[in-house]
Amino acid sequence: MSPLHFLTLSPFLLAAVLPLLGKMAPRLHKGWVAAVWSAILFMTLIGYSAEIQAGSPINESLAWIPSLGISFTLYLDGLSLLFALLITGMGTLVSIYSIGYMNAAENSLNRFYVCLLIFMGAMLGLVLSDNLLTLYGFWELTSVTSFLLIGYNHAKQRSRYGALKSLLITMTGGLGLLSGFILLYIMSGTYTIRELFEAGAPLASHPLFLPAMLLILFGAFTKSAQYPFHIWLPDAMEAPTPVSAYLHSATMVKAGLYLVARMSPIFAGAPEWFWIVSLGGLITLLYGSVTAVKQTDLKGILAYSTISQLGLIMCLLGLSSLTGLMEGEERLLYAAAGTAALFHLLNHAVFKGSLFMIAGIVDHETGTRDIRKLGGLAQVMPIAFTISLFGALSMAGLPPFGGFLSKEMFLEAVIEPLHAGVFRLETWGVLFPIIAWIASVFTFVYSALLVARTFLGPRKKELQHSKIHDAPFLMTFPPALLGVLALVLGLFPSLAAYSLIAPAVEAMMPIITASGERLSPDIKLWHGFTPALWMTIGVVAAGTLLTLTARKWTRVYTFFPSKFSISGFYDVSLNFFERLTFRVTSLYMNGSSRSYIKYILGFMLLVLGFILFNSADITFRVGAYAQIAPYEWLILLGLAAAALAVPFTKSRPVAIILTGTVGYLMTLMFVFLRAPDLALTQMVVESISVTLYLLCFYHLPKLRTEQRAVRFQLPNFLVAVAVGILMTLIALAVLGTNPFEPVSDYYVRESYESAGGKNIVNVILVDFRGFDTMLEIMVLGVASLGIYNMIKLRRKATDVGSRQVMHEGEFAEEDAAEMRKSQYGYDGPEADFNEQAEEETAESDSPAKGGEENA
Amino acid sequence: MPKGSDIFLQNVSKIVVFIILAFALYLFFTGHVSPGGGFIAGLTSAGALLLLALAFDIDTVRKVLPVDFKLVMALGLLIALCTGTGAFFFGEPFLKHAFGYFHLPLLGKTELHTALIFDLGVYLAVVGVTMTILITIGEDS
Question: Where in this chain does the record put each NADH-Ubiquinone oxidoreductase (complex I) chain 5 N-terminal domain (chain A) (predicted)?
C-alpha cells in the first residue's frame, strides 16, 4: 500500500473512527478533525507538486480483482493534482467555516462530518483513479454523499425533495457513464485510462466510439449540472451552506469537468465531441446567467451563477479539443483555451467559495437570504461587504482580480474558432463570441445585484433593530482568505500558472508534450487593447446600464410560466412514474405468499424447462440407478407421506411439524448418501426454521377462520405437478448428460495445496468464492434489518418522511403543493390556487386520517 | 411466546445449551478440515439460544445475553470486510487469504489461516441475523 493509496483512503478511515473520537472528547467540535486532516492532506499534495511540475507523474497500483482486470490504480499527474489540491484546500476552509456555522449542540454533527469526510475521500479517489471502474465507484459515492448532505435537515420536505432530485439525476447520469466505460472496455479491452490513451486512432473508427462518447458526456453533463440537466443544482441549495460551498460549487459539480478533461485525449478531435461540449457549455452559460438575474434567494443566485460558470468552463474545454487538429503556432492558440478552462476553474472555486460563505454569514446574522428583505448591510458588516465585493468583482470579470484574467482568456478563446477552418466553424463560429458576450453582460448584472441588493441601499425596518454585526473569526477567516486569493490570482497569476495550471493542461493534452513543444502559461494582467479587452469594456458599459434599470426590465421574466420549465417536466414525469409503478406493482404484489411462490415456481418452470428442451445433447438416463436399501425405502416413503399430508392438515403446528419431518428425513438421507456437510446444515436450518415458523404462526389467526376461502385451485395444482415432473426430469438428465469435465478434481487438489484446507465445502465458501459469501452475509444482514424495521418501526402515515398514501393510492395534495413551491423558489403563479387546494385537502384529509388510525 | 413453565425442559436446556454451544465452537474451529465452518457454527449457536428462548422466554435470553444482535451482525460484516481489505496492506488483491503452519504450545503443529478470521465474520453475522429476526418476531405481540 503506497502513500498515495493511504492518502486517498484516509478520509474513509477517519470517517469510521470519528464517532468514537467524539465519545472520547465530547467537547471537541468534529469540524476541527476534518479541518486538520484535510490541511495535512493538502500539505502532502503540495509536496508532490515539484515532482509533477518536473513532468514525472506518480503511478501506484494495487490489485483489486485481477481476474477481471480491475485494479485500484492511482495516477497523480498535473490534472489530478490541481483537482486534489482544490478538494483538500477547499475542504480545509469549509471545515473551518463549518465550525462556526454548524451548531455544536446538535448531536447529529457526527453524521455531517462523516458524510463530509467520505465525500472528500470519494472525490480524491475520483480524480486520482486510473481505472475506469474504480473511478465510477467513487463517482457514485460522491452522488450518494451529496444526497445525504443535501437531505441533512431531513425533517424538511424541501431538503428531501432536493436530495432525491439530485440523486435521481446524477445517478442516471452515472449509469450512463458506466455503460460508456463498458463500451470503452469492449472497444479496447482495458479499463486503464493510460492504456486507453495509447489505444489511440483505432478507437475513433470503431462503431461504438460515438455511443461511448455520448454516454460518458451524459454522465459528465448531469454531474456538472449542464443544461438541461441543471435542474437539480438549485434545489440542492437546501443543504447547509458549507456543503453548498464545498460540494455544489467548488468540487463535486466539477467532477463532470474533470471527466471531460480526463477523457479528452481519447475523444478530442471528433466533431461530435467539439460541438456537444462547447455548445452545451455555451447554452448552459447563457441560460444560467440569464436565470440568475431573476433569483431572489442569495443562494439561488449563486446556484444559477455556478451553473453558468460551469458552462463557461465546459465550453472552453470543448474549444480546447481543437488543439489536436492544429499545427505549430495555431495549436498553442487553442491550447490556451485549455489553460483558460483550468485557470477559470481555479478562480471560480476561489470566488464562488467566498461568496457562498458570505451568503451563509448573511443568513446567520439576519435570518434571511431573500434579497428583497436585505439591504444596507455594508454599514454593520463591513468585513463581509469587502469580501463579497472582492468575490463579486472577480465573478463579474473585472480587474485586477483572477476572474478578469480568465474571463479575458475566455473571450479570446471564443473569437478564435472563426479562423479554425474545421467543422464549418467559419459560418457557425460567430455564435460563440456573441453568446459569450451576452452571457458576460448578465454575469456582470447578477454580480452587481448580488452585492448591491444585500449590502447597499437603505436598510429595511426589520433589520434595523436586531443586533447584526460581522461574523466571528472562524466564519470570517475562510472567505477572507479566498477573497485575498482572488486578488492575488489576479495580480500574480504566474504563481498558479507555472506550478498548477501548466502541468494540468499538459496532462489534459498529451499531444503538446508529445510533439516536443512546451506550453507557455504566461498570463499577464495587461496585454494591450485586444478584442477581448474591448469586449470587457462593452460588458461593463452594458452591464452597468442594465443593473441601474434592473427593476424596470426584470418583469420580463414573469412572461415565462414555470409550469413549462424542465423542472416542472421532472416533477410531472416523476409523479407519473410513481403512480405507474404503484399500479404495476399492485398487479402482482398482492400480499399473498401463495401467489409469490406460484410466480417463482412458474418462472423457474419456464426458464429451466426452456433450457432443458432446447439444449442439444441432453439425454435422460433411465434404469441405471444405485441399489436402494430397505431402510432407505422406509425413509423415502415417510418423506413422501409427510409431504403429502401437509395440504390436508387442519392446524398450523401440525403442518409445521410435518414440513419439519420432511426436512429431518432429508437430513437422514444425506447421512446415508455420505454428505455430512449437507446433513449438518440441513439439520440446523430445519431446526431453526421450524422454530421460526412456530414463532410467526403464534401471531396468526386460527386456520379455521380461513377454511372457507381455501378451495381446490387448478393453476396451483398444475404448477405444483409440473414442478415435480420438471425436477424429476432434471435429475434424470443430470444422470445421463455429462458434457463438461467435473470441477471437483480441481477443488480437491487446490483446496489443500493453495488454500490449506481439507474441507472443500468450507474452503470454497471462505476462500475460492469468498466474495460471494461476503455479499451473501450482507444480504442476510440487510434482510434482518428489513424485518426489524417492518416490525419495530411501523410508521404512521403522519410520520416525517412517510408518503401519505390516501385511499385511492394518491399522494397528499399538500406535499405536491410544497414541492411546487420549492421548485420555483418563489410562491409561483399558482400560489393562490395551491393554498386553496391545501385548505380543501386539509379538511378532506382529517376524516381519512382518523379512519386510518382507527383501523 | 407464552411464559414457559415446563420444569423438565427448562432444567435440561440449562445444560444442553452449553453442550450445543461447545459443539458450535468445535464446528467453527474444525471448519477448514472437516464438516463445519462459520455458517453452520453460527446457526448452531443461534439454535442454542433459540432453545433457551423456547424453554424460558425471550426476555430471559435478553437478560442472559444483553447484547444488541444488530450490532453483532454489523460487527461480523465489518470483520469480513476488513479481512478482505486487509490483504491490501500486504500488496495482495482483495480477499486474498494467507496461511501457515506453526508450532504452538500445547496444540503442537497447527495451521493458522486468515480464512478463520473471515469465518468469524460469517459466524457473527449469522448469529446476529438469526437472533435479530427471532427476537424481533418473538417480542412482537
Answer: 65-113
Domains in chain B: boundaries: 7-139
Residue A786: closest C-alpha in chain B: B133
- Contact residues, chain B, for A699 at CB < 8 Å: 137, 140-141
Give A756→chain B minimum CA distance, Å.
Answer: 7
CA distance A748 to chain B (A): 12
**Cβ contact A774–B47 (<8 Å):** no
pLDDT for residue A800 is more than 60: no
Please state the separation of Cα A90 from the chain's center in Å.
20
d(Cα A769, Cα A763) in Å, to the nearest integer?
8
- Tell me which residues of chain A, numbers 651 to 690, contact chain B at a CB-CB cutoff of 8 Å: 676-677, 680-681, 684-685, 687-688
Strand partners, B112: B100
3-state SS of A666-716 is HHHHHHHCCCHHHHHHHHHHHHHHHHHHHHHHHCCCCHHHHCCCCCCCHHH
Residue A830 has pLDDT above 60, yes or no: no
Query: For B35, which of A680, A688, A785 is closest by C-beta distance?
Result: A680
pLDDT over 80 (residue A624): no
pTM of the model: 0.83
* A402-428: b (≥16 Cβ within 10 Å) or e: bbbbbbbbbbbbbbbbeebeebebeee
DSSP B104: E
Q: What is the pLDDT of residue A61?
A: 87
Which cell numbers hold the place of A635? 425413509
CB pair distance less than 8 Å for B39 and A687: no
Instruction: Locate the chain A residue with the closest alpha carbon to B55.
Output: A691
Determine, for residues A767 and B97 on separate chains, whether the beta-carbon distance falls below 8 Å.
yes
Note the CATH architecture for domain A591-739.
Up-down Bundle (1.20)
High-pLDDT (> 70) share of chain A, %: 89
Q: 3-state secondary structure string, A387-433?
A: HHHHHHHHHHCCCCCHHHHHHHHHHHHHHHHHHCCCCCHHHHCCHHH
* Distance in Å, alpha carbon of A782 to nearest chain B alpha carbon: 9
Three cell numbers at A528? 494591450
Mean pLDDT for A71-87 is 92
Identify the band that residue A603 occupies on the pLDDT scale cut at 50, 70 and 90.
Answer: very high
For residue A150, name the pLDDT band (cuts at 50, 70, 90).
very high
Domain boundaries, chain A: 271-527, 591-739
Question: Which has the minimum average pLDDT: A373-387, A458-472, A554-568, A720-734?
Answer: A554-568
Question: Which residues in chain B have Cβ-Cβ distances shorter than 8 Å to A72?
Answer: 88
